[in-house]
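TL;DR need structure tokens for one chain.
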Amino acid sequence: MYADEFAGQSDATVVRRAMAGSPDAFEELVARFGPVVRGMAATVVGYPAADDVAQDVLLAARTGVPTLRRPEHFAAWLRTVTRRRAVEVARRDRRDSAEMRADELRYHRSLTVVQTPDEILARSEDHAALHAAMRRLPDELATPLRMQYWHGAPQRRIAAALGVSLATVKWRVREAKLRLRRSLREVEGNDHG
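>> reply
TL;DR here they are.
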């Protein structure tokens, strides 16, 4: 909505404008960092709790932005607030891993339309294999992959949110995809062998 007004402005510049009370600047920050916050939260609490955590964090950011001392540290501050809130929610709403996997599977099934029972079974098995392979990835590889492909966060935003370089994010996403392919091939080989 305000993309033209903020085009080309650095995150720190937009943060300064939000600190000065500009609601449009804060909305721009939500647009820039919302997917990243949701993605980070999802790595801790899964779905659909990540949406609630993201909403809580962004509401806290609205009141917290004016108190920031260094606008250039907004991404790191937001990362810390997100991690803390997600851990609080995870502790409060502890669910067993089978229930979490079922929620994720239902979420991904709801995104696709299938027509036959065989297609439903095949898609279910594919999703289960993919989620199992994702769980075997180390967090440092799985997190940027989820943030990019499941939440649509750009790699430079992921880098800022995780506090690493863009090159590191690119390598981690590439390495995660390679490991997923290998893992899925092994599963497929075991099923047919």
